[in-house]
Amino acid sequence: MLSVALKPNTRRRMAAIILSTSRLFSASWSSLSRRTLVTTASRCTEAQARAQFYTDEHKELQRSLKKLIDSEINPYVDQWEKEGQFPAHQVFKKLGQAGFLGVTKPEEYGGLGLDHSYSVAMSETLGTINCGAVPMAVAVQTDMATPALARFGSHYVKEQFLAPSISGDKVSCLGVSEPSAGSDVANIKTTAKRQGDDYIINGQKMWITNAYQADWMCLLANTSQGQAHRNKSLICVPMDSPGIHLTKKIDKMGMLSSDTAQIFLEDVRVPVENLIGEEGMGFTYQMLQFQEERLAGAVMTLSPMQTCIQSTIEYTRERKAFGQPLLNNQCIHFRLAELETEVECLRALIYRATDLYVAGDDVTKLASMCKLKAGRLGREVTDSCLQFWGGMGFTNEVLVSRFYRDLRLVSIGGGTDEVMLAIICKLMGTLPQLPMKK
Amino acid sequence: MSLKVLVGCKRVIDYAVKIRVRPDKLGVVTDGIKHSMNPFDEIAIEEAVRLKEKNIVKEVIAVSCGPTQAQETIRTALAMGADRGIHVEVPAKEMEKLEPLHVSKILAKLAEKEQAELVIVGKQAIDDDTNATAQMTAGILNWPQATFASKIEKKDDFLEVIREIDGGLETIKVKLPAVVSADLRLNEPRYATLPNIMKAKKKKIEKMKPADLGVDTTPHFEVIEVTDPPAREAGIKVEDVDTLLLKLKEVGRI
Questions:
Q1: Nearest by Cα to A11 from A40, A37, A44
Q2: Nearest-by-Cβ selection for B76 from A63, A99, A114
Q3: What is the pLDDT of residues A217-274, one digit of tens each?
Q4: What is the interface size between A and B, counted as CB pairs within 8 Å?
Q5: Where does the protein end up (chain B) (predicted)?
Q6: Phi and psi at residue A216, in whole multiples of 5°?
Q7: pLDDT tens readout for residues B64-123
Q8: Residue A213: in which H helix or E strand, if any?
Q9: Most A CBs within 10 Å: which of B78, B194, B201, as the mutation test of the A interface?
Q10: Which residue, among A48, A52, A56, A311, would best test binding to B if mutated, counting the most B CBs under 10 Å from its CB?
């Protein structure tokens, strides 16, 4: 009997082959099911394992990270939100020491070389931080500024920038968006012109998370003329290079402990060795890691939404109006049940997308769906829950109002809802053809 | 050093959970509730691992009694640095009625079987707060005990232990083999790092039943009722000490 030696995917595929050939011979199903190599019992445990999604190692990772969050991060979040900045170097160093910043990164540079399901496990637990800003900053470090570097960078750039980012000694930021190009990445204007052994960089970047504390930036710039998808490159830029100016911190409605700024680059000189991979491949590299970035963005909303629903249940159980707990009102407990159902649907979608991604499939469509749903559901959950908190929900003294502000960004950052919809339409074959550019 | 240390760790309801009494009033709701390792046991495991890192101890064996889920607790111990685990299988229904005396007998038998010279446990479990297992284990083994330890130092063939007692701190010497119970300030448990979590996958967990150790788990107690403590009443403010004394006399407190 095919036992645990084969991976679940292989077993499934073999079962499918056996089933289809059996139907071809139109033998009776019951006699064949007895003779097929996959028994009902093993299919059951396999299904249970798939539904559980996380193995004991994943759960242990989550337990350990939760401990770190509970003692080193959550006690200080309120203070950081008031101050408008969290200490990135301090927090990243603690995470790096415990191995959490290099989960999927290569072992030679301090990473653990684990598959993406571990990264998803970590992102889900990061969602238990009592604000959106800190998980977002960590995601920039692990899932936005470093994936292309890890996959395509030379040994030199990996040593200079990847290894210290994994250990938590250096903080990174991602320089892609610009004042005139956010969703329209192909339209960015920043240039990096080759001059001898250097690139001379000129341009502006906008909405840069970790800008004030970053030691280096993963910059996307135009390195040549030509087609917008083939003329860009990713370059590692040390943030202390002369010519880099930051504006004052952008005053945002949420994600308050995250320092976000506009960055001006004036004749910034960077050695050619700082190029990641090949010139002209920058756009492609960025696109490749979007699946991971979008899955991470979606996964990180699960815990905050769960927390909102759970805390609203507790609050409305205690809070009384007209002689009984608010929770006794059908409009409230039914609505919370609806929201709980939707969160469960999103969770199933995310786990399925991750499973397929780990198995080697392209999950662009599913990942885009996850991000789209997460952004919209985050708004629905926080909005409904805030309403049930009544006056208290409107104060800054409760978590639900902070999540209301923080989760609003999910529909915008990391790819807007509209961009996600366009991607899904493209894959559905419903996106109208754009007029050919001359 | 050939010293083997046995560490007991219990799976309890997580400290942050809001406990609710079961409708049948015979216990608290445990289904679907978050569980984790008893915090004092985490401190015990941490201390054992530190002793190993100082080369005072050769092997750390983590033991937990409970249903299948107790293995999660053992795995956390392994991720923190324990070398191997022993899971004493006690089904969930029986676990409700398992008493410190049963656990002490189990630990004593295991200490003998494994030829451990040191047994460390948390001073009490945060679910029943009995604070009895360490003491009874020492009694059964006829070993010296050092409870409420806030510092442990090995000197030659004995341990110098500082204990937290009502009057302050007490320093005692206990000869090995001994039983120690860990108090809050003994150490600050580490986060299991990701590399160690992955390494723990290869560590062994031995399974056995209380009967295999010759321990009878028949309960000696019966829980008659579990209720919430009375809701806290509002207090009153008084202007001065004389009024305070008067009020206390009025309600018969002095």
A1: A37
A2: A63
A3: 999 999 999 899 999 999 999 999 999 999 888 999 999 999 999 999 999 999 999 9
A4: 46
A5: Mitochondrion matrix
A6: -150, 155
A7: 999 999 999 999 999 999 999 999 999 988 888 899 999 999 999 999 999 999 999 999
A8: none
A9: B194
A10: A56
Q: Is A293 a catalytic residue?
A: yes
Catalytic one of A279, A293, A314, A338 = A293
Residue B250: count of CB within 10 angstroms of its CB: 9
Q: Please answer whether residues A134 and A77 qualify as being in contact, where contact means their C-beta atoms are separated by less than 8 angstroms.
A: yes
ipTM over 0.90: no
Residue in A56, A65, A99 nearest the CB of B75: A56
**Cis omega before residue B23 (within 30°)?**
no
For chain B, how many structural domains are there in total? 1
Closest-approach residue (CA) in chain A for B71: A56
CATH number at residue B9: 3.40.50.620
Tell me whether strands B178-182 and B145-155 are parallel, antiparallel or unpaired.
parallel
Joined together, the tokens standing for residue A205 give 């970047």
Domain that holds residue B185: 3-250
Cβ contacts (< 8 Å) between A314 and chain B: which residues? 18
Tell the residue number behind the tokens 């409970």, with chain if given.
B66
What stretches of A119-252 adopt beta strand conformation (E)?
172-175, 191-195, 198-209, 216-222, 232-238, 244-246
The residues, ordered by sequence, that sit 6+ positions from B79 with a Cβ below 8 Å of its Cβ are A60, A64, B192, B196, B197, B200
pTM of the model: 0.81
